[in-house]
Amino acid sequence: MAHPDRAETFKVWDAPLRLFHWLLVAAITIAFLSSEGDSPIATWHMVAGWSAAVLIAFRLVWGLIGGEHARFADFVRPSAIASHLRELLVGRTERAIGHNPLGGIAVIALLGLTGVVLWSGITVAADRMDEDLHEVLAYGLLVLIGIHVGAVLLMSLLTRENLVRAMIGGRKKRDLHPGARDARAPGVFAMLLGLVAIVLTSLAILRAEPTAFSHQHREAHHGAHDERD
Ligand code: HEM
Ligand code: HEM
């Protein structure tokens, strides 16, 4: 793989954040692929959903104590959105080191809507809600993901910066960001707290739903749903 020289790049995204992103992509992809009752991987739907819940819990903690550009305080800047939009409209696009102002809102929307879809799925599984709302919310999330991926690709083109590669390797090119320095890395204490958040959330989920992480027939577990489709 072409690997830009380390001296020519600088750190932006910390490793736990990148791992979070691609695991969330995997979990949500599996949740969609397994969502139809007659899917060959239907038994994995709830495992994928519960795993996404653990990931979201980690991300909330990481937004407070994670690496520099992972922190909410670094990228939730509503006051900067208007001028960012004005620049986009006149075709001027400034590269951002972390999330740009509009991207910051998209991050909150993606995390928030994923949380709502998870809540609705959990409520369906507990037989307290009709499946339709969960399905509508899930497709709403799919639309938002489409916009997210489109925006990432568009901004990569407009700013001539490969944002996807940065979310994989964690680094951006120095020549596109003169004077930029390595992002502050998360401390050991933050790493530990992140791990604690993952363990505690998993334990809480297992307490509420002992089979949450073992794949099984939804029908066998929640007998009321097998008449669907
Ligand atoms: C981001 C995560 C999730 C996505 C994208 C998602 C998506 C979907 C979709 C699209 C359907 C409708 C399937 C159809 O076409 O009939 C569905 C059904 C369902 N989902 Fe989810 N879901 C997620 C998480 C969860 C979670 C966390 C749970 C429970 C713990 C859950 C439980 C269910 C149940 C019980 C059904 C009804 C299926 C049946 O009756 O067998 N989902 N989900
Ligand atoms: C299930 C699908 C996806 C979800 C739920 C999702 C969610 C997210 C979230 C929450 C963030 C913010 C990262 C953070 O600070 O926590 C993000 C950023 C990002 N995502 Fe995704 N993503 C998805 C798919 C993709 C795909 C397929 C790509 C590649 C084309 C991608 C590329 C990126 C990039 C490059 C960023 C960083 C954007 C920036 O530079 O500001 N995502 N995504």
TrEMBL record:
SUPFAM superfamilies: Transmembrane di-heme cytochromes. Residues 12-170 form the Cytochrome b561 bacterial/Ni-hydrogenase domain. The chain crosses the membrane at residues 19-35, 47-65, 102-124, 136-158, 188-208. Signal peptide: none annotated. It is a multi-pass membrane protein. It comes from the Bacteria. It is found in: Cell membrane. Keywords: Cell membrane, Membrane, Transmembrane, Transmembrane helix. InterPro entries: Cyt_b561_bac/Ni-Hgenase, Di-haem_cyt_TM, Hydrogenase_cytochrome. This is Cytochrome b/b6 domain-containing protein. It comes from Novosphingobium album.
